[in-house]
From TrEMBL:
Organism in which the protein naturally occurs: Paraburkholderia franconis
Signal peptide residues on this chain, from the entry's feature table: none
Designated name of the protein: IS630 family transposase
Domain of life (superkingdom): Bacteria
SUPFAM superfamilies (alphabetical): Homeodomain-like (SSF46689), Ribonuclease H-like (SSF53098)
One Gene Ontology molecular-function label: nucleic acid binding
Amino acid sequence: MSMGRPKAELVLNEDERSQLISITRSRSISAALVTRARIVLATADGEPNSAIAQRLQLTRATVGKWRLRFLDQRINGLYDEVRPGKPRTIDDERVAQLIHKTLHTKPADGSTHWSVRTIAAETAISPTSVHRYLKLLGLQPHRSESFKLSTDQFFIEKLRDVVGLYLSPPENALVLCVDEKSQCQALERTQPMLPMGFGYVEGVTHDYVRHGTTTLFAALNVLNGAVLATCKPRHRHQEFLSFLREIDNAVPANLDVHCIVDNYSAHKHPKVKAWLAARPRWHMHFIPTYSSWLNQVERFFALITGKAIRRGSFGSVKQLVKRIDQFVSHYNQNCEPFMWTATADSILAKLQRLCTRISGTGH
């Protein structure tokens, strides 16, 4: 003879059973909710509470609790109820004031931006709460990003021209990215550098003696990544024209030369134009203003600066030039081309997203 109060029958419709099975199979839902769904499914299949408790390693009281909760509230009853807690001390108006000050004002002490502590003192909100709200809203007043919009009226035409050379270079022609890295300084450290060791990095003094500068002229072959480079004492049209002659002598006579350069005045000097006009195989392609990122040779300049120049110590310009020539020589032995993948349309789309983002900043 059965003892105790009779249990109310638990019956699931097809939709409820489908939802419960989905919960038990989920890997992103909390383990507690998965266990409750399994209790309800087992109960609906007629399994006794004691057997469910033993299989899931729970108490009979826990199984009975969630069974009754489901009978009363169905699937919504399996979720945790909102627990009482300490009421908010920062209302919506103060949060709005925090946002407004962060976005539209500057500190009165002349600082360029707010910090967590300064904005906290200004709004009488704890630094912990300020940090939480700024993180939640994606506000980062301590950071900044650089940008520069080209003012070239033929930006799109020049962009498509240069990118077209990268993605689909012409036949029987050589595409070269040409530029100059001016003011390469021969800096000699006032004290010897400390070598790297276990537990500490290389040590370099902050002060130096400046022995002069040189200008690095470089032409990057887009096809194979090889670099033709030379150092010259000055950065004028005479030196640029001399470098063009070096390129002309190095390129086979049966190939056209497509030269990508920036808008520096030396590149457009009348003598340079006259020299180019006398050589029909030369074709100049100018990148838009403020778009040095479009010239692949800039990537080579970054490599040689980081690996050969910045951390060096040179007692003379001659030593600096020797180091540059040594780096270029070794670089060309195992050079690889820089793979350009961005299309002109993708670049224009990215520029459009930038303009959309900054369109409401009051510029």
